[in-house]
# Entry
Amino acid sequence: MIKIENLEKIYRTDEVQTKALNNVSLAVNEGEFVAIMGPSGCGKSTLLNIIGLLDEPDGGSFRFGSTEVAHVSERQRSKLRKEHIGFVFQSFNLIDELTVAENVELPLIYLGMGAAERKQRVEQVLEKMKIMHRRNHFPQQLSGGQQQRVAVARAVVNSPKLILADEPTGNLDSRNGNEVMELLTELNEAGTTIVMVTHSEHDARYAHRVIRLLDGEVVLENVQQPFTV
Amino acid sequence: MFKNYLLVAYRNLVRHKSFSLINISGLALGITACLLIGLFVHDELQFDKNVPDGERIYRVYTQQTKTDAPETFAPVAPMFATTLKQEFPEVEQTMRILMQNSVNLLEVGDKKIYVGDDLMVDSTFFDVFQLPFKYGSAAKALNAPTSIVLTEEVARNFFGDENPIGKEIKVDKSTFNVTGVLENSLDKFHLKVNFIVPLAAAELPAERMKKWGWQQFFTYVKLRPGADAKQTQAKLRAYLNDKVQPTLPPDEKLTSVPVLQPLHQIHLYSSNFKYDSSVKGNITYVKALSLIAVFILLIAGFNFVNLATAKSMQRAKEVGVRKTIGASQQQLMLQFLSETVLLTLASVVLAAVFTSLLLPALNAFTGKTMEFDLLANPALLGVLVLLTVVVGLVAGFYPALVLSSFKPVKVLKSAVVTDGIFGRVQWLRHGLIVVQFALSVFLIICALVVFGQVSYLHNKELGFNREQIMFFPMRGQNMNQQHEAFKNELKQVPGVVSASIGYGFPGDQVAGDGIIVPANGERKDHPVTQLMVDYDYIKTLGLQLVAGRDFSKELTTDKDHAFIINETAVKELGFGTPQQALGKTVEWEVWNDRNPDSLKVGKVIGVVKDFHYKSLYDKLEPAVLQIFPDAYWKVAVKMRADNLGSSVDGVKQVWAKFSPESPIEYKFLDDNFEEMYRAEDKLNTLLWVFTGIAIFVGCLGLFGLATYAAERRKKEIGIRKVLGADVSTIVGLLSKEFLKLVLVAAIIAFPVAWYVMHEWLQDFAYRIDMPLWAFVVAAVAAGTVAFLTVSYQAVRAATANPIKNLRAE
# Structure
């Protein structure tokens, strides 16, 4: 599903050039659950952003499915994002002015889906995430775990092929963290590909495979668990 | 999708209530000011627009050519109309209105009302001004010398709702027949009209009507379609030069040239005309106000942008999320634009409410009857809709562009947006603040200077005693014939100190005429003010004699052979010192229709200290006082301050004895002077209002910028606090930047304000020195207000928990 070859990303300030990613090559197959690990500043978030089409690489190739996307237009990237990719962030990133249901509904609005179908889809996914009872609450009225469940619900509501999670448990206690990891595992088992950036060895164990980065380079790829497509 | 935009917009508004309130009300205030000014300007521009064939109608006025500063006179000699009609084929019709300034007693049965603003006109009046009639018709309305045309309002006062055509009405005891009633549509007509009578009623001697030197008529011409006014004007000037000038005796030569003024310009382009009794506006004010309106809207719009952009940083996360989820930049632009349009709509609605509430006050202030009725006036509604869309889109474009161009990768990682497009346009933001505060400082200075001058006008020592002088015109033949007895009885009233009858009291009309000084075999005619007085004038007004003596009843020659002049006249007539002036011979051509050539020859018997009988706009002119009972038209009664009420009652009783048929109509002399400066009083009020708006709007801008700065420097402040900075240091840090801007603003405003106020003061012959303290006060006031505004945000930022801001990084 994802094939990355010799990817480079360079951050430039006036005097200093920092190579955030150097010659990174990796592949993620459909249905896989991959964790990316590494110390702070190793480039894992940069990699995730490029995979999520939020950022552009400075060199190398990135194929999403059968399409080369390393340098496509913002419009094209936006289209790919809203149709195929769901995001889960460490800090949830829910819109404070929207209710739980409205937050979850947002991707569907941008997809141009009709109101009736949106309502149905939102309710389905809220049921699934067990937060239906809080559908009319605003984010600040929820606990961290609940907020992250809403974020996950928002990420999956349009049934994306790929979910990108950036330290999804980073702001949660262990009980809520485990719940979120269980959710992601369930989604993966239902067929969604997941790429997750994490600091937590515990969380990484939920993944099939761990890619370790150091100073912008892949240092180790180990398959923890066998998986079948 | 749109619903979602509106929902978020609405919730954002509600969530940040105080911010929304400031932003909406700021813009609403700006729009309100614009609307009110717009209504006023529109109204001013409507004058005479409804007069049929208005584009062919011109007023003839004259411009003095001899003097250094050319003076413009609205009235012209009667022969202009005669000549234009007779000698110029392109002239379709001419019409004259006699210049007068009288208040007449109108009577129908027992009903007696004093009514001013009458027009004595040529019978061609309605050929030129085809005003709509409610009753009667224009054709025959002014045919008979006893015809009278009333306005609807006057007609209703006397006759109720019935048709008064053919009814009798007395004007100052002479009987007229109502031949027409005009419709009530004259509020935007440049002539003040209550009733119209034919010139024939004045029975002016035919001889006088053939004069080229008697500038007493407002004269209008209606040209034939297609005629060129410029050509007519040139031809008229040539005609005067070639045909008229050679026929005039040397001392009656024309010293001015005629100008044809388009009807549509009379209201706004005649502000400096002398002896003009039309309803006058001022194009300079109209232009200035229009400029101010645009400026206010711009500033309010910029502040709106400023605040919105500053606030937008708090919505960076939302943008990031929306973009991540798949929103395109266009969709986000659309979202934020619809938000600003919504905000603008709220402001416009609020502005419409404000305007409706404030319009009555504006109407009272301007004496207009403007309306703000959206339902009755779809064009106005259109303007509001247009305003909403244009202001909303223009003001929303920049914040929308900034917001929608946020990179999600960046904004989702950090809660504080520090770089990007904001930094680059700092000069623009700062520039705007400087402009706004420069305007505030400028207005504060103007307001203080005008206030100073207005106080000066009201309180200046005028050289006579204007307190407790009751003042009224005489009425009726009986009173005129027995003026001496009348005055004597007035003096008997308890509390009355003295009484004087004459023509030429301070603050009232005065007559200008020539005085002849014979010297070295030549007779030189000097223009002077003629004050027609009696033996009590000097005493009643408390004038000071600097040489010679007052008029005396005991000396019989004083009546026909004595003049008293003022100090200025001593200089102008070339008499040297007041002492030297005594005994000098002067001559005056008596106002006397029965014997046009009679000459009054006399000697100067006294010199009075200069006193201001006109407004302080006018430089003191040479004045000549003389006993002239033919002009005993007005009465001034000096009273003691105590028991003023009963003294006034006493005067009324004496009045009733001498003129029982006419009610008394009195004022106090100082009221005349108060009235003279009404325009300045209004300017004074207006300036304070504008100053208030400017300061408020300026503060809004500053508030926005301070909010932005506090937001931008959150991290810096956090670090400083962790390192040990206390609140006052941080408040100082944040405030200093803005106080610098105010300082720059003051430096820009000072010379401009000095220049403008210097020019304004030049209009007054008597004025205050430019008050330097006003500049200091303005700068300090602006600085203080700016500091208070900024320090609110600064204190908030400085007292916030630093850890929170640092962790957000």
Residues 37 and 212 of chain A are 5 Å apart (CA to CA). The helical segments of chain A are 44-51, 74-84, 100-111, 115-128, 144-156, 174-189, 201-204. The mean pLDDT of chain A is 88. Residues 174-189 of chain A form the longest helix (16 residues).
